[in-house]
Write a structure and sequence with these properties.
Blueprint lengths: L7 E4 L2 E8 L3 H9 L1 H7 L3 E3 L6 E4 L4 E9 L3 E6 L8 E9 L2 E9 L26 H18 L12 H15 L5 H31 L4
Antiparallel strand pairs: 1-2, 2-8, 3-4, 4-5, 5-6, 6-7, 7-8
Helix pairs in contact: 1-2, 2-3, 3-5, 4-5
Length: about 220
Amino acid sequence: MTLSDLPRFIDRWTIEYVRVYRHPIERIWRAITDPKEFGQWFIRGEIDLKKGGAYKFLAGDFSGVVREIDPPHFIRFGNAVSSGAAGYFQYELETVTDGTRMRFVQHFPSTDIYTPTPDDLGGDIPVPGTPWKPGFVGGWHAHFDSLGDLLDDIPMGSRLPRTEFQTLAESWAKDGRYAGILDEKGAARLVLQFRRKERWNELNKVYRAYIREHCPPA
């Protein structure tokens, strides 16, 4: 992880991530708007790709409407509330020398009430009163890493450095194969899923400190 991978707080309620992927802008656009694509690196869901079109990601109550769209450069997703205080997230794509620059921005209303999620590994709120849970902020980071893997056509998480936990998971999966509980492909997939979950929790620790240090004061 490099400093350029870390997000920037635009203000207390808005955060920005910037990544550059070595692929054409049309390829990135497809990856963030085609359900067959974003269902692999992000969350499965559906999008009606037009202004005012509905979207729904199949994780909690993650739904709303497309506020603005300008293929293949810009798309803004708003929640179902029509007031000016509604939150949103958006992708801005720009062709650059090395490929495509993706700027992702997420904004939350300052008027909402944000509470911890005690049963979530990253569900605490380092800066009370804000929406920035470590698991949430680090989750976007992990998703954008996975997007890079998808674009490069490699198994998601396969470029992560090896860890002791990964070795233990491989040993456990090997026992599962011998016992007939897992086949070879299933065992490999499970080990990779464990490693990605471990990575997410590593990011939780990074972002817990990062949020405390960089989130602007009230």
